[in-house]
Design brief:
Blueprint (H helix, E strand, L loop, with lengths): L4 E5 L7 H8 L7 E7 L5 H5 L2 E4 L6 H15 L3 E3 L4 H5 L2 H6 L3 E2 L4 H8 L1 H10 L8 E3 L2 H13 L4 E5 L9 E4 L15 E3 H10 L6 E5 L2 E11 L5 E10 L2 E5 L2 H13 L4 E10 L2 E8 L16 H9 L21 E4 L28 E4 L7
Parallel strand pairs: 1-2, 1-4, 2-3, 4-5, 8-9
Antiparallel strand pairs: 6-10, 7-8, 7-10, 11-12, 11-14, 12-13, 14-15, 16-17
Helix pairs in contact: 1-11, 8-9
Length: 376
């Protein structure tokens, strides 16, 4: 009889409640126990886990690695899926292996390349993957110069931080003056150039932004599963065109994604995003982690989280071909339970076979797990 697998997700996105669900519903019918840690006691990931704990605050990356190693040894973690401090953690892969823990994460070199979007664009362009034109800017004058070049070519300019994830800090430049129109409806991504320039001139420190043309839809996120032998086991594209979502196996998206995943050591789960520029796909972003929407591949008959855990354990699932492509769909949010306020998440006992409590639990207030983050 196969032993249970103990998986740890550190401070991660709310959408990974679905990652946990898929691990438990794995096609191998293997017992999986999930440990989760977070800095927010109201994270639905904590409530979804079998055991959970609050993470210590204020740790340096090196100190966090020491904390993580101790946590893996104490909890008997088989597979650690690091998001917070991923770069520091993967640099100590051998130390985690020494305590019996496999890291479900890429190589240190891959994390370093894709932490910085400018470095990433240069790297993937060198292996033949098309990228959009871009300018790295740190001052107001550099921003104005880049915007003027793009506008002279009939393009809309946008900018985003050179490092970051989830579409945080993405804005589209407009020259339309600020008016009451901007105060109607919900806040949008557009920002007036004069306001940005004024903020930059008043800033005490330079920024680190990439300026580029506004790329066109569809946006295609290719979810990849790659082995430590640098061979892709799974590649499926998730398409976004407005509200409509779907799936694709077209090689115009999958081929460059495989080239990046295999060429740069993006082991285990990664997400590689493309958009259109002048009628052809160009790279938008590379995530060295599982996407929040990875669970959507279940609509294609694929359990990618479990396949990744198998691979991390040395149980190679082989090349995975989706048996079918799911129909088009839309993403909506839904409620997930949280623990009662001011309580730490429930800890399931090691010997418990029945997961339901013998006595009724305290009333739990539902909170909506946000829909997948959708950077543009």
């Amino acid at each position: 009889m196969l032993s249970r697998v103990r998986v740890w997700l550190n401070r991660t996105y709310a959408e990974n409640v679905f990652f946990i669900d898929q691990l438990r519903r794995n096609p191998s019918d293997r017992a999986v126990e999930v440990h989760a840690t977070h800095g927010d006691a109201d994270s639905p990931v904590l409530a979804a886990a079998d055991t959970a704990a609050m993470e210590p605050e204020g740790l340096s990356p090196a100190a966090y690695v020491e904390y993580a190693l101790a946590e893996c040894a104490r909890r008997g973690i088989d597979v650690f899926v690091p998001r917070l401090n991923q770069a520091a953690v993967v640099a100590h892969r051998a130390d985690f292996e020494a305590v019996g823990t496999a890291l479900l994460a890429p190589t240190p070199e891959a994390v370093a390349v894709f932490e910085d979007k400018a470095t990433a664009y240069e790297a993937v362009r060198s292996v033949g993957v098309p990228v959009p034109p871009w300018w790295r800017v740190r001052t107001a004058d550099e921003l104005i110069a880049a915007v003027e070049v793009l506008e002279a070519d009939g393009r809309k300019a946008c900018f985003k931080p050179a490092s970051g994830a989830g579409g945080v800090g993405f804005r589209i430049i407009t020259r339309a003056p600020f008016s009451l129109t901007n105060l109607g409806g919900f806040p949008g991504p557009h920002v007036q150039l004069d306001l940005v320039v004024d903020a930059l001139r008043r800033a005490e420190e330079p920024v680190d932004w990439l300026v580029m043309p506004r790329l066109e839809e569809p946006e295609v996120s290719v979810d990849c599963l790659t082995g430590p032998d640098n061979r892709v086991r799974l590649a499926v594209g998730r398409t976004k065109n407005g509200r409509r979502r779907g799936f694709t196996l077209r090689e115009q998206w999958l081929e460059p994604a495989r080239l990046i995943a295999e060429g740069f050591g993006l082991h285990y789960l990664s997400n590689i995003q493309f958009r259109m520029y002048d009628g052809r796909p160009v790279l938008l972003d590379v995530n060295t982690r599982a996407a929040g929407g990875l669970h959507q591949l279940s609509q294609c008959g694929v359990n990618a989280p479990w396949a990744a855990v198998q691979l991390a354990l040395g149980e190679d699932p082989g090349v995975i071909e989706p048996p079918f492509l799911g129909q088009d769909y839309a993403v909506v949010s839904g409620p997930r339970p949280l623990r009662a306020a001011a309580q730490l998440p429930r800890q399931r006992t090691e010997e418990a076979e029945v997961l339901l409590p013998a006595m009724p639990a305290a009333r739990v207030e539902p909170a909506a797990a946000p829909a997948e983050a959708l950077p543009l």
